[in-house]
Predict the structure.
Amino acid sequence: MARIGVFVCHCGENIGRTVDCARVADALREHPGVAHSVDYKYMCSDPGQALIKQAIAEKRLDGVVVAACSPHMHEKTFRRACAGADLNPFLCEMANVREHCSWIHEDRARATDKAIDLARTIVEKVKHNRPLQTIRIPVTRRALVIGGGIAGIQAALDIADGGAEVVLVEKEPSIGGHMSQLSETFPTLDCSQCILTPRMVEVYQHPRIKLMAYSEVDAVSGYIGNFTVKIRQKARAVDASTCNGCGACTKACIQRKIPSEFDERLGPRSAIYVPFPQAVPNTPVIDRANCAYFKAKAKGATKAACGKCAEACSRGAIDFDQQDSFVTEKVGAIVVATGFQLYRIGADQPQGLTGYGEYGYGTVPDVIDGLQFERLASASGPTGGKILRPSDGREPKRIVFLQCVGSRDPAKGMAYCSKICCMYVAKHTMLYRHKVHDGQATVFYMDIRAAGKGYDEFTRRAIEEDGARYVRGRVARLYRDGDVIKVHGFDTLSGEPLVLDADMVVLATAMRPQPGIEALAQKLSVSYDQHGFINEAHPKLRPVETNTAGVFVAGACQAPRDIPDSVAMASAAASKILGLFSQAELEREPTVARVDTGLCSGCFHCERVCPYGAVERREIRDRKGNLLKVVAEVNPGVCQGCGTCQATCPSKSVELDGFTDQQIWAEINALAL
Amino acid sequence: MATAAESLTAFEPRITAFVCNWCTYTGADLAGTSRLQMAPNVRIVRLPCTGRIDPLFVIKAFERGADGVIVSGCHPADCHYTAGNYHARRRFAVFRELLDFMGIDTRRVTFSWVSASEGGKWRDVVNETVGRVQALGPFEAYHELAGRQG
């Protein structure tokens, strides 16, 4: 016969007001298998816990049920108290008579009846609880950072400076991300490249960082502390170990008018190229879609159509036969920092969205987006930092900026606020005025959201000192009329319609996660929202963790973020990882599935439904080594304890500890008592 | 008629709810912290995930005297374990037809998604289910059948 102790908490008045706690304790005292039952004002207090410890010792209890608040609140507290009295903590469970009873009912008699039911149910469950031992798993003190933008760079440097090794994977030929494209940054107007490039070089030279640019994560397996990552190194057609980055090949290339991705298609690049002069690593890559050699080869030419770059290279680093290669890395933790892309109207709008054609992006000349304006304003940009119209190279004297293009618009775009646009538009108006002293910037806005240190002052400066004209309202449409762009808008403060002549229009388009984020999230088993942003484990208390242990998130792949936010998240993720790496072994809850290999028939339905790939195959052989059968086995380090395998198993040979069939049957049966 | 109506209102159905730990259980906790008043007829059985719910649990609950059952977990794409709720959804799509075949009125079973932030929705699911089962009356036919066989 079980010897279970029941402890009914009044929670001050919180439970006691609607539930007759003494009656609950009395009823449970009569329940079979209950050896001890009391009620007390505050069970979670020190004297309350002492009451439990004392009863365990004196009444030789073999199970404890605390009828109090939600287990999410105090299960850990009471399990620790039990462990303190040498009772296995997993023999303690809670009956939720506060959130699920006293707080949601008024009828005292019926609430008390329900509380008795709930406590009995858990008593019946605890009769079938087994003592469990905490699982210990080893930790590989090495981290993978996916994405080499400012967030990835910060995370990699922080982890490496903390003493652990880092593998930094970047899909583009160079690290630096969007920040390397920016001219100046708000709210200080300091040069983006000047603060970023030293960090990029630091990454390159760090003895504990292995930089893998032009690479992508191909597959991920394993679990916290023990991930195995397969990385695809895309073929540059340039041998990075012999190339010294002299740039002779890029000068020799005959294809010179390919729109540069780095310059947002406002300037040209060659087919063999480094994205920008300060690229890290400074190794060129051949763009196979535009290279004369590869284009001819794809068409079946047997003779080399071009080889100017190879001729120009004094070190023989050009390797047209180079293939993608794969590298396998073992890591203990992963940071996802894949960043954002801009919502490009007409090009890659999300499914079902056709909005903003009226803004003429891609059809009306001199309608550009925010990143294109950054390139125009940047000293390293295609115009050398002069604000010039892409169509005719003339200096625009009137620029109109439209905020919230695709943001805060559930009907046509994204419902969320892209957060950074208010600030960068204010910055753009200032940069414009500093470069074109007689120019007039007009901004159409919905609200100015400038929450942040020095941010509101910054937008005020744009208006008060740099003469930006802010019009609260939306633009209905715009079109080209001869040399100017006619902008039809509405000023909602004066209630007047407005028609402006503009030489250039800049759209502050919404921030979206990078394309392919869903596929990466699925490889990592992390969840993402309907827009593709990676979900954090808890919006307030666990902002840089994901729902998969050991995988962390930083920067604009989690939500629209500015640079300070991204850096803060990256440092937070790094400190979480260093904390993880400071332990010799990890401890985790032993509520995992285990297979009865005697019953298992090896159908592997469990393997197919397991979201974590925790089910492995094990061969059972006799003494002579003959194969008897292949059975499923659960890797307790990988299993997260969802129990889908158990509900799927046709022979009921998988059991999830903590929620076994026996335990749940007992609960259901108890409800009918 | 009056007596029938009286006995109908006097009938307090017994409802067993199978909910996942991360969304609906937490949503029910939120209903509690928000002090949302609801019918006291529901008894929650906490499971890690809706993927853990064996359809037999539902049958067993009816067999042991429940008049109605609620199954609730995370919204699609919101599962703490990434995909458990999808397995549950598939399983219960098939199971629903089986219930019908077995003579269990499917109006006695509520399937819903309640997230951790939807305390109000949980209250609505509870009240709506209790009301519906109340109107259907006690599930005596099945209880008798189960009793005879047991």
About this structure: The first strand of chain A starts at residue 4 and ends at 9. Chain A has 18 helices and 34 strands. Residues 335 and 552 of chain A are 5 Å apart (CA to CA).
